[in-house]
Design goal:
132 residues; alpha/beta; 5 strands; globular
């Protein structure tokens, strides 16, 4: 797996969603909102509503797409293996996620054909990579 595979997977989940529940780090939430505006400008079919839970300065962020599995950026490893975990520095991981969202939206995702890999995501394999 490539180093930014987790950010790419979480970006795909976000862009396929019609809505998100965002909780955690205030700066991270603002950065994600910025990425979604740019994505919608690049691909007008992207319309994602956002709702907010608690906001803080915890250096951790939780993203829950409506009706789907989301992700956790920073903080401790989640117990559930259907949640993408992006460990480490929140700012760096948010930049990776930002870049992935904008580049996928610019390519036409989620409506594009062949613009991304089609292999199923393995969170177990990803966590083995990021733990080492």
């Amino acid at each position: 797996m490539v180093p930014d595979a987790g950010a790419l997977e979480l970006a795909k989940r976000i862009l396929k969603s019609r809505g998100l529940l965002l909780e955690g780090d205030e700066a991270g939430i603002l950065r994600l909102e910025e990425a979604l505006v740019i994505a919608a400008d690049a691909n007008p079919s992207i319309m994602i509503n956002t709702e907010y839970g608690s906001r803080d300065s915890s250096a951790q962020m939780r993203i829950a797409p409506f009706g789907g599995h989301g992700g956790v950026i920073g903080g401790s490893e989640p117990d559930a293996e259907d949640i993408v975990w992006l460990p480490g520095d929140l700012g760096l991981q948010m930049q990776n996620l930002f870049t992935s969202i904008v580049s996928l939206a610019s390519a036409g995702y989620p409506g594009c054909i062949g613009c991304i890999d089609v292999e199923p995501w393995s969170e177990r394999e990803w966590r083995t990579v990021v733990r080492n």
